[in-house]
Amino acid sequence: MPTRDEAWPTGTPNWVDMSADDTAAAAAFYSELFGWKVDAPTDDAQGYAIATLNDRPVAGIGPKPAPEMPANWSTYIATDDADATAEAIKAAGGSLHMDPFDVETEQGKHGRMFFGTAPDGSTFGVWQAFDHIGAGVYNEPGSLSWNELHSHDLEKAKAFYADVFGYTFDDMSSPELTYFIFKRSSDDFGVGGMGPAAMLPEGVPSVWLTWFAVDSCDGAVAKVQELGGSVVMELGDSPFGRMAVVAGAQGETFGVISPSEAQGEMPTPN
Question: What InterPro entries does the entry give (predicted)?
Fold first, then answer.
């Protein structure tokens, strides 16, 4: 089981959380779907709970910050200096939802964070780890597997995220699909993906999509529907795994992928 105990390197998507209308219902939904354990939040956590898988943190569930917001999954990107990253975001043409702030409870000082928006309209979190590194298990059924940006202005997005996080890109596009895998400048492997917002309904801004690994994609999709969710993008096969995009019972969108069910040759960069 892939696990991690140290802070994720700057530029790596390192955490995801759901902003929910009903946090208890969301906890029940994902516990049934992924086998998570979600303890009740502590009194000073403002309703925010940490979900665990095999006793390791896997995702967060908390109340929506504003009633008019739709329920959603957010992607966080690691940094070793939240304040410096905030300045880099502004210099690259992005904006901040709030200044960086420390996240603390009686259990300790967990990290420093903020949310920002890129010039293409995509919103993301930034997390500087203290006690909480982010995901402690990954690429395991029921855990975070991949994060990708669906952008209405892909070239603008690529330029922004490269300026802020130093990404380089492998062009994995085909005649049917435009897709880039982004890498940290010091790595030879991809840490996420970016593509155009073709699958997004009209009026929906550029968005980061969270993918969770599962044993059986068909089984996961059936379970989502049984629990009150729906299918957004039908099941399909790929060299990366059998996959689908679904919506949870509160309307939040996420992907499920079964790497063990991969079919076809792995593509190479153009």
Answer: Anthracycline_SecMetBiosynth (IPR052164), Glyas_Bleomycin-R_OHBP_Dase (IPR029068), Glyas_Fos-R_dOase_dom (IPR004360), VOC_core (IPR037523)
